[in-house]
Amino acid sequence: MAVETLTPGAGGSGLGSGRGRILSSLRSNPLGITGGILLVVVVLAALLAPVLAPYPPTEVHFDTPFQRPLTEGFPLGTDDLGRDILSRLLFGIQTSLQVGVLSVLLAVVIGTPLGLLAGYSRGFDAVISRLTDVTLAFPFLIIAVGLAAISGPSLGNAAIALGIAQIPTMIRVVRGETLRIKESDFVLGARTMDASPTWIMLRHVLPNATSAIIVQATVIMPVAVIGEALLSFLGLGIQPPTPSLGIMLSDAQQYLFRAPSAAIFPGIAIALICLAFNLFGDALRDAFDPTNTSRKGQR
Amino acid sequence: MLQDAENILEVTDLEVTFGGTPVLHRIGFSMRRGERVAIVGQSGSGKSTAIGAILRLLPGSGRISHGSIVLGAGRTRGDVEDLATASEPVLRTIRGQRVALVPQDPMSNLNPAMKIGPQVADAIVASLRGEAKPDRAEVRKRAVALLSEAGIPDADRRYGQYPHEFSGGMRQRVLIAIALAGEPELLIADEPTSALDVTVQRQILNHLQSLVDARGTSLLFITHDLGLAADRTDRIIVMSEGRIVEVGTPRQILLDPQEEYTQRLVAAAPSVAAVLDSEPLAGTLPDAGKVPAPPILVVENLVKEFALRGQRGSTVRAVNDVSFAVERGTTTAVVGESGSGKTTVARIILGLETASSGQALIDGESLTTTRGAQRRALRRKVQPVFQDPYGSLDPTYSIERLIDEPLRIFGVGDRRGRQARVGELLDQVALPRSVAQRRPNELSGGQRQRVAIARALALEPELLICDEAVSALDVLVQDQILGLLADLQDRLGLTYLFITHDLSVVRQIASTVVVMKSGDVVESGSVDDVFNRPRAEYTKELLGAIPGAAFAA
Questions:
Q1: Does the first or last residue of chain A, that is N or C, have fewer Cβ atoms within 10 Å of its Cβ?
Q2: Which residues of chain A make contact with B392, given a CB cutoff of 8 A?
Q3: B141 closest CA partner among B123, B153, B159, B126
Q4: Which residues contact A33 (CB under 8 A, 6 or more apart)?
Q5: Please, which residues have CB within 8 angstroms of residue B392's CB and are 6 or more apart in sequence?
Q6: Which of A238, A265, A237 lies closest to A249 in space, CA to CA?
Q7: Could you tell me which residues come within 8 angstroms of residue B500 by beta carbon, excluding any fewer than 6 positions away?
Q8: Are A17 and B398 an interchain contact pair (Cβ–Cβ within 8 Å)?
Q9: Which of B393, B419, B423 sits opposite A186 (nearest CB)?
Q10: What sign does the dihedral B87-B93-B94-B100 (CA atoms) show?
């Protein structure tokens, strides 16, 4: 019976049990659940925007501008051109999330390997860390504004600019984790087994740094969403009439007193997206900490 | 309320629960004035919970659900109080003034951002609450007096130094000074020396004892070391799993234990066993008649210098001209206190550090000079078991993957063959095969160390370097792991190099011993020679510091 646990295929179940632990830890964290539910709602809203939206986001109704929320036919009212705010909001969330996900991917894909290299080898560290220091000396928005200004305003360029601006922090996080993990006894043990640096980095350092990377990604995500809103607000991101939360804010600014709802709803949407990612990221960090569960169990 | 006026503390039917689960099961004991009592138990036995209850400083969800803790009236001030029900303001007049604590870890219990003098002065001011505002110069004078009384030389000058400028032993003295600031009637010492080297431990405890005796303070001493408890106290309370197992004088407990648990504890206590057993448990010297085989490990004039940070050109010599040899199939122990360079020697042998000069040869070859296939072959011959079973296993790996990793790195066998080998290794270290898919954090310290051993054995090495491999474990578990190592040596013909600070472990497992101090080899030879006829002054000092030695006769 005991041998059964070692039958072929059992090797893979190790990963499954790890995932189970993380899920059950997430489930027991009320803030994590709240974040998770919010996240699901936001993602669903973005994905189902074409289905849920009552009108196309750019359709104008010149006869009904500045409608209040809960008016017949326009649940959240309309803006200065009579465009339905609900429809624009749904499509705006879609663009915002697109930009967010793209820039996070960029930061992770470029920042992680560079961070690993910097943490593991002193030679690379000298070069990479000086470069990140230089980049970090500029406020990230200035970099993003500069890049967007050079490459022209568009969704893709905004995502790239925001992603690049977040790479240094990602490098720092991964580098710090690598420095910590490479001093641990289990890495020393692997070295005495003649494991190559690549083996150690990919099989020991990276898995142990994953939680930090994911948490950092959930921190970058809301920053990128706000960053997109900001860039679009400044006219350097998404171009009107394509809806984005930033564009909506920037449009509504001119009529703030006449139709405050046109600014309030996208503002709430940005706040909710950020809150969802932050709560979920916090819960993920707790769930990923392998020492966390054991300590709770022992005392 | 107090059954005997001569008692300073009476604990009756004390039950402590954590989130509804009882952790202490109605324990009761009493202490007379001026008496020294030890509570001995392994981790999880409830000894720390007991003092947490007495001080009413239980962590988290812990609370006293039943029983009383009666503190006798003070000689000069204070009434009889039941600490289990006393209100917080009353407790504040008791803690630090009538009952004081010397905490366990001198490294983390001092504020690193505050000079030590003011930390002592704070304790003095706190103990004077309610009285006239004390004069600053007066407080300083008393703090200096306390510090020098606690054994800190040149206390007036060191008053203005920060904790990091003090050694562990000196910090513990500062903590003792803080505890004595309020002139308590009852002093609770929670493993006050477990983080310190044996010779320092002896100095501190001698000093603490003289201070306590001079003031007539009662001492409640918490420790996991039975030998230490026997040396230092009048009465021993043995605890296990939240219950009191046995109470008696040191002589009764050590020489005539009544309960089965105490008997096991006495048998396993290495400090006691070291003096009671004259025969080492494992490892025999090679027969004199046999043709001597070449030693498996030869360390020749090894020197390691580290560059001092921020001071170009200046170096510190961690290992100074160390030479010794290890015969195949035997156990050699390298003993020394922290800073003796023993771990650096182990790391050089493992090829994790390069020697500044000299060499460590395994079967005539060195890991630092060989390359490629030759080096890989050499790696397979020597494997480590590290001290901390919590840090030496990658927490993201399952047990199967951990044990299987060296096989995968060396490309040994196919998937099915490796699985069979993992099963075999688990059997060898007496772990059930069902743990294969568990994670390290689901196992106990002893189980983890078994996994570490299984992993080290995976490549069928000839030499195991055990760097403090049992020092993080409780005595009973330590005893089991040492037994397992001896058993594996018999079956597999392994050679061990045991790096340890614990002389009693040496006695238990090794046949040859190398004593190191500040990078030098002070003495080396067979365990019997070194233990019975130590030549070097330092070795004598080390041997004398083993607690429990008085009960050898």
A1: N
A2: 185-186, 188-189
A3: B159
A4: A26, A27, A283
A5: A185, A186, A188, A189, B385, B386, B452
A6: A265
A7: B333, B334, B335, B466, B468, B470, B471, B506
A8: yes
A9: B393
A10: positive
Q: What is each CA distance from A183 to A209, B37, B163, in whole angstroms?
A: 13, 42, 26
Nearest to B521, CA basis, from B320, B352, B359, B294: B320
Side-chain half-sphere CA neighbours of B467 within 13 A: 25
CA distance B349 to B547: 32
Q: Measuring CA to CA, which residue among A290, A214, A278, A289 is closest to residue A32?
A: A278
Please state, in angstroms and rounded to a whole number, the distance separating the CA atoms of residues A78 and A65.
Answer: 6
- Please give, rounded to a whole number of angstroms, the shortest distance from the CA of B384 to a CA of chain A: 7
Spell out the residues 6+ positions from residue B204 whose beta carbon is closer than 8 angstroms to its own.
B151, B169, B172, B173, B176, B192, B193, B196
pLDDT tens digit string along B408-437? 988 888 888 899 999 999 998 988 888 888
Taking CA atoms, B4 is separated from B237, B248, B405, in Å, by 20, 19, 63
How far is the CA of B415 from the CAs of A99, B27, B400, B403, B419, in angstroms? 43, 54, 12, 13, 6
Q: What is the rounded radius of gyration, in angstroms, for the C-alpha atoms of chain A? A: 23
Strands (DSSP E) along B282-425, which ranges? 297-307, 315-326, 331-335, 357-362, 382-385
Of A199, A290, A293, the CB nearest to B409: A199
H-only helix segments in chain A? 10-27, 30-47, 49-52, 85-120, 122-137, 140-151, 155-182, 185-192, 197-200, 206-233, 245-253, 261-288, 290-298
Distance in angstroms (rounded) separating the CA atoms of residues A103 and A115: 17
- Do the strands B297-307 and B315-326 form a parallel or antiparallel pair, or are they unpaired? antiparallel
Q: Count the Cβ atoms, other than its own, within 10 Å of residue B411.
A: 8
Q: Report the C-alpha gap between B406 and B455 in whole angstroms.
A: 7
A150's tokens: 């050079």
> Starting from the edge strand earliest in sequence, which strands make up the sheet with B62-71, in order?
B21-32, B7-18, B62-71, B81-82
CA atoms within 13 A on the CB side of B320: 13
In one letter, which amino acid is A233?
F
What is the helix (H) or strand (E) element at residue B71, kind and residue range? strand B62-71
DSSP β-bridge partners for residue B71: B9, B81
Which residue from A179, A173, A82, A161 is spatially nearest to A121, judged by alpha carbons? A179
Give per-residue pLDDT as tens, A75-89: 787 777 778 888 888
Residue appearing with tokens 């006798």: B72
Q: What would the 3-class secondary structure string for B522-542 be? A: EEEEEHHHHHHCCCCHHHHHH
ipTM: 0.70
Write down how long chain B is.
Answer: 553
pLDDT of residue B425: 92
**B182 φ, ψ (degrees, to nearest 5):** -90, 10
Pairwise CA distance, residues A168 & A162, whole Å: 11
Residue whose token pair is 């500069």: A146
Q: How far is B406 from chain A (nearest CA, A)?
A: 6
Residue B245 backbone dihedrals phi, psi, to 5 degrees: -90, -45
Quote the distance between the C-alpha of residue A258 and its chain's center: 34
Q: Note the pLDDT tens digit of each residue in B63-92.
A: 888 888 888 876 666 678 888 888 888 888
Instruction: List pLDDT tens digits, range B185-236.
Output: 899 998 888 777 888 888 888 888 888 888 888 999 998 888 888 888 889 9
Question: Look-up: residue for tokens 């004593």?
Answer: B515
Q: Which chain A residue is nearest to residue B466, measuring alpha carbons?
A: A189
